[in-house]
Amino acid sequence: MAMNKYMHPRNIYRIPPDFKKLADIYPQFSSICRLDVTGKITIDFKDPRVLRVLTACLLKSDFDLDVSIPEDRLVPTLPLRLNYILWIEDLLETFDRTDNIKGIDIGTGACAIYPLLAAKKNNWHMIGTETDDESLKVANKNVKQNNLEDLIALRKNQSKFTLKYLFLEKNLQYDFCMCNPPFYVSLQEVWESRSPARPPPKNGFTGSPQELVTEGGELQFCRQILEESQELKDNILIFTTMIGHKYNLKEFLLDLKAEGIKCTTTEFCQGRVTRWGVAWSYHNSCDLLKLVTVKDKTKKKNSPITFVIPKVPDQSYTMEGVSNKLKFVLDDLKIQYKIITKRKNELCLNIIAYTNTWSNQRRKRRLQKQLDNELLKKPKFGSIINTPIENKGIIEQSLEHHKKDDVQSIRDCYNNDSLREKIEESNKCIMYGTVENNTDEDPIKRPNARPVDNASNITSEIKIIENTSKPNPLSQAIVKINWKEDLCSLSIEYLGGTGGKESVHQILQFIKNNWNKL
Ligand SMILES: C[S@@+](CC[C@H](N)C(=O)[O-])C[C@H]1O[C@@H](n2cnc3c(N)ncnc32)[C@H](O)[C@@H]1O
């Protein structure tokens, strides 16, 4: 659902751009337009080239900015960039700052989009920093071709810091800093990050690895800004950053709270994309918490569900003991996890489950045993290996005699759980036997045989099959272990997934029911 009505009240893109008008004025825009059956002008938002032309034309028509956007760099979506600038305007107002505003944009990118908008729209003085030489080169060209050198200065960051290196002169003063950090830890995370519970993004994908990926991801980047902000509290009035993942927002707010720092947040809503803004200040002249935030009212709050972990005789009731046990349970359930935060009294994990491995465990184990026996009887030593799809056929045959819901349960189970690994493991054994016993057999003579030379080939092939058929997550959640005095609690908060909130209730129930038994 489009969320234009939740954009900042002063955002001009609450009203969608008039494509007909743009097509009349800009021939390059006209060339990317198409007429739909109703005679309406549309464009293909999924095509990065189209996004580039649209952004360049809007920058010209709405801000009189001539901006070159390189093919291999991020195309800045204007509604979001404008939402961020407008929010900073609000923040400055609460601090009664109106004249001679000076700001810093950390990681300005090839378009220097924030400095250009801030300078052109508000006459703010901006410093834009960048680590990437190529982006910096284009950014300088963009500043120059808009005659904004008096207001914008760009700096190469060659340090390991985000801000500190700019303050060699101790008494430099800025009103704010802003940052759209690289959001991801790795390129793989770029592809896996979007919750399947949400509709796919309307816009095509743009951006280079250096713009999107940073060591430790955005949380680490924001933490670095926070750490440096403590040394720069007298140099910068308002520190701000954008955050792209909700689970990182929560963590970052806890960091700020732990340090006793006053802060405020906002949601930047535009199209199908939501980002978050966090601002903090060390100045007492204004209470940032009083700031009204623009909220996306379409989303209901997901409150975490919690249970107090009981003490189990002969088991260590310490952070390490409980964390290890939780990880063991998650491994056992084939639930993937990533540690987000590890503190003395808190462990925070982002978990992803692809199949329901926690329901009807006893029945599944019984069926699995039966099926294992049937399967191990079937293929003869030295026979051609079964691909997972062929295994599925064997499962279907073996299940003919079982009850309908049992069959479904095994089908679910097959998708990603230990049963499939067992089957494939058993096939691997058969395979090694085949290779060892038929070393001089030419695979070409056996039309149906797959040429195989060693064991690693087999595993890598299985992995490829697993990757390409990876289903959408069933459940994605934040799991937290928290110690207060000598009591430990475990909470789980639903983030997304096809299984809905019920899936996290079930996972918690499984952990509760089995904690004493494990
Ligand atoms: C997500 S892009 C944002 C670009 C631009 N601000 C925008 O909103 O379109 C992040 C940018 O930060 C730059 N960057 C990464 N680490 C940096 C650092 N330590 N200091 C300055 N820039 C950095 C990257 O090269 C990249 O251009």
UniProtKB/TrEMBL annotation:
- The enzyme's main class, written as a single word, is transferase
**Keyword Isomerase in annotation:** no
Instruction: Give GO terms for biological process.
Output: rRNA base methylation
The record's SUPFAM superfamilies line, in alphabetical order, gives: S-adenosyl-L-methionine-dependent methyltransferases (SSF53335)
- Read off the CDD domains from this record: AdoMet_MTases
Please provide the record's keywords in A-Z order: Methyltransferase, S-adenosyl-L-methionine, Transferase
Pfam families in UniProt: Methyltransf_10
What is the top-level taxon of the source organism? Eukaryota
**Gene Ontology CC:** nucleus
UniProt KW Amino-acid biosynthesis keyword: no
| Annotated EC | 2.1.1.-
Q: Which PANTHER family match?
A: RNA N6-ADENOSINE-METHYLTRANSFERASE METTL16, SAM-DEPENDENT METHYLTRANSFERASE
Question: Which protein are we looking at?
Answer: U6 small nuclear RNA (adenine-(43)-N(6))-methyltransferase
Q: Which organism is it from?
A: Pieris macdunnoughi
